[in-house]
Amino acid sequence: MKIPRIALAAYGFAILIVIVDQLTKAWVLEGLGLRFEGQSHPVLDPFFNITLVHNEGVSFGLFGDGSARWMLSAFSLVVAGVLGWWALKADRRLLVTSLGLIMGGAIGNVIDRIRFGFVVDFLNFEGTGFFPWVFNVADSAITLGVILLILDSVLSERAAKVGVAAEKS
Question: Which residues are known to be catalytic?
């Protein structure tokens, strides 16, 4: 089976996100030496700090007791696999970019769950008063990927409607 070139772009984005995610987590754990949950390294105090958080659950603390470690890992791998299959059929750059970002983010967090039993979060903007969660590069990629996926859906739907309207006249 020949993989379409555009799908390779999605896989390339995913690989890039996994690499950047894992390198930044290694830097936080090894380079900054943050070992204990809650340890913090001021960057632009109080607005932005690097704070080590062991996220054993998912968004907003769901399954925060770590009981769903393997279920969450398996689910994330299934999602990444489905998105990888979708990328084989994709024909729009924005769609491919969004799929790659989400795949990479999901895989980056799965690596943590398997290695540590939790996801390493460290980007802390709590001091802004607007964003109380601590997150990581993988989480950022997933969020941006979902936003781009929605944008692609809206734009492609709009383009389809324009095409239909033009055909009717």
Answer: 121, 139
